[in-house]
């Protein structure tokens, strides 16, 4: 994997027409309905890596996404143990400040540099969060983070009220523009809201992981909290290009090789579901990936979806989701496919 100082110039992609945007909760940010997810581009050398990545391709993918109208990037300090944030900074260097996308990142996961493949500790201590914020500002090369999110509920004994107040304080101090929670449930959101408004929630949401549709999405809709869902293609399973053979060939440093959704009966059900999306994609002249993402965007309360890419071609494979509107017939067919395959859990169709 090339180091940051050996990347060299990467030509920007040709510009595309603007994409429609939606207001992110009560914030002053209007974001496109899909954003660039920077998890995979962190590289392989940590506990939840996606295997080896090419930094030049990653930089090219980000610049291509921005040129094609996508106006926000979601990353996290822990992705590649800081490396993803560094790649994002490199990608944004040649883009004029006035034309740069919003940059969202996360805190609350602290790793041990001596054991990079050990899972990061979920830390909520205020002093730790402040150190993490300063480190992310430096790695990203920005003066203010547009959205700062607590990645997971703390597991170090820090009460939710303490870590949420720290994020509210960082917002008040101007270090960050907006603050949110990731992977928190409706009860936790309610606790945080009593201290100060939760600008955003980032939950997992896809045709396979549908559980947040029952409680968290309605809560956010009622509270005016923006929702940016992650893994809408279920980490590649719903691209229409994933196969059982590919799942079996995943390298050991790709976390998916160890995940239940990528093996056995669950994998069979998931691939059958992806196949069922093909006729819908054909009717719309788009990809299975775009249909899967557009399904998440059809739910009340969902503002936008985070979608990963490691090459410019992958961006082009799902950009249609930013404008694709599924019909009632489409949604009914998808609900029927969920019932027939038995894939995933949670509500099967938006009200």
Folded structure, characterized:
The chain has one domain (29-240, 289-324): TIM Barrel, CATH 3.20.20. Helix 1 (55-67) packs across helix 2 (83-92) and helix 1 (55-67) packs across helix 11 (312-318). The longest helix has 15 residues, at 126-140. The chain is built from twelve helices and twelve strands. The chain has an eight-stranded parallel barrel, surrounded by six helices. The protein has a two-stranded antiparallel sheet with strand order 1-2. A two-stranded antiparallel ribbon has the order 6-7. With 351 residues, it is an alpha/beta fold. The protein is globular. The model is unreliable at 1-12 (pLDDT under 50).
Dominant shape: globular
Outline the low-pLDDT stretches. 1-12
Average of the residue pLDDT scores: 93
CATH top level is: Alpha Beta
Oligomerization status of the protein chains:
single chain
Major β-sheet strand ordering: 3-4-5-8-9-10-11-12
Share in β-strands: 5-15%
CATH topology description: TIM Barrel
CATH superfamily: NADP-dependent oxidoreductase domain
Order of helices and strands: EEEHEHEEEHEHEHEHEHHHHEHH
Give a quick set of tags describing it:
351 residues; alpha/beta; TIM Barrel; 8-stranded parallel beta barrel; 12 helices; 12 strands; globular
Summarize it.
This protein has 351 residues and is of the alpha/beta class. The chain is 36% helix and 14% strand.
Strand and helix layout:
Elements: E1 21-23, E2 30-32, E3 34-37, H1 55-67, E4 72-74, H2 83-92, E5 102-107, E6 109-110, E7 121-122, H3 126-140, E8 145-150, H4 160-172, E9 176-182, H5 186-195, E10 200-202, H6 216-223, E11 226-229, H7 244-248, H8 264-276, H9 278-284, H10 288-297, E12 304-308, H11 312-318, H12 328-341
Parallel strand pairs: 3-4, 3-12, 4-5, 5-8, 8-9, 9-10, 10-11, 11-12
Antiparallel strand pairs: 1-2, 6-7
Helix pairs in contact: 1-2, 1-11, 4-5, 8-12
């Amino acid at each position: 994997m090339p180091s940051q100082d050996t990347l060299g110039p990467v030509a920007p992609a040709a510009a595309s027409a603007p994409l429609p945007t939606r207001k992110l909760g009560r914030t002053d940010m209007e974001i496109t309905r899909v954003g660039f997810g920077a998890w995979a581009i962190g590289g392989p050398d940590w506990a939840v890596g996606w295997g080896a990545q090419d930094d030049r391709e990653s930089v090219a993918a980000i610049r291509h996404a921005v040129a094609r109208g996508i106006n926000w990037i979601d990353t996290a300090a822990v992705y590649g143990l800081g490396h993803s944030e560094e790649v994002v900074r490199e990608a944004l260097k040649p883009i004029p400040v006035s034309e740069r996308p919003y940059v969202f990142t996360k805190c609350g996961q602290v790793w041990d540099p001596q054991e990079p493949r050990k899972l990061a500790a979920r830390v909520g201590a205020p002093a730790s969060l402040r150190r993490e914020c300063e480190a992310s500002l430096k790695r990203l090369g920005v003066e203010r983070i547009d959205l700062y999110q607590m990645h997971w509920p703390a597991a170090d004994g820090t009460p939710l009220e303490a870590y949420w107040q720290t994020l509210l304080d960082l917002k008040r101090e101007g270090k960050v523009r907006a603050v949110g929670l990731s992977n928190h449930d409706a009860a936790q959101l309610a606790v945080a809201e009593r201290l100060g408004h939760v600008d955003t929630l980032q939950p997992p949401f896809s045709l396979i992981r549908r559980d947040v549709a029952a409680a968290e999405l309605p809560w956010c809709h009622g509270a005016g909290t923006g929702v940016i869902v992650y893994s809408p293609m279920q980490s590649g399973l719903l691209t229409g290009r994933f196969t059982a053979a590919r799942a079996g060939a995943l390298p050991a440093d790709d976390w998916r090789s160890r995940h239940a959704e990528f093996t056995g009966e669950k994998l069979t059900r998931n691939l059958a579901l992806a196949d069922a999306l093909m006729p819908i994609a054909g009717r719309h002249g788009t990809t299975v990936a775009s249909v899967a993402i557009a399904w998440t965007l059809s739910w009340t309360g969902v503002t936008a979806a985070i979608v990963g890419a490691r090459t410019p071609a992958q961006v082009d494979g799902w950009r249609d989701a930013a404008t694709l509107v599924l019909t009632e017939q489409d949604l009914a067919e998808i609900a029927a496919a969920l019932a027939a395959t038995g894939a995933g859990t949670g509500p099967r169709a938006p009200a």
